[in-house]
Amino acid sequence: MKQNPSFYFIILVLVVIDAWLLAHPNLLGKLGILFFKYDMIRTFPRALATVGLTTLVAVSIAIFMKKTSRQTALLVLGLLTLVSVGLLINTYFKFSAGSYAMTGSGFKTGALLMPLILILVFGNGMYEASKLKK
Predict the structure, then answer these.
(1) How far apart are CA 83 and CA 70, in angstroms?
(2) What is the per-residue pLDDT across 36-56, written as a single tens digit (0 to 9) for each?
């Protein structure tokens, strides 16, 4: 089954946008990155590598699962989609209160975009696996 290349282009654009947003918090966010030693998102290249590698692993899992049986692929990708939704909910509540709420709207959007990218990748993998023959 051939994957639409525009899906990967959209994911690539979202990865670059996410890395840009994460690498550019406001002053309080920058202090938090230094204080909590979030070195993986301190600069744009590091944030791009972090978000890109995470997305690449997710895409690799989705592609690998499509090579297994339909039932296994649907189960694993469904669970990973649910975990990603849980991560999105957790991130939303984490960035709605406390010191994380003052890190700037761009940084918060970047933090929420990563779980959304994972939901897209695993959800698309689940859709593609559902089209596999039994």
Answers:
(1) 20
(2) 567 788 889 999 999 999 999
Whats the size of the chain, residue-wise? Answer: 134
Burial 99-134 (b: 16+ CB within 10 A, else e): ebeebbebbbebbbbbbbbbbbbbbbbbebbeeeee
Angle between helices 44-66 and 5-23 (to 10 degrees): 150
Mean pLDDT of 113-131: 95
Q: How far is CA 92 from CA 6, 66, 74, 109, 125, in A?
A: 28, 30, 27, 9, 24
Nearest to 81 by CA among 128, 17, 37: 128
Q: Return the amino acid letter for 21.
A: L
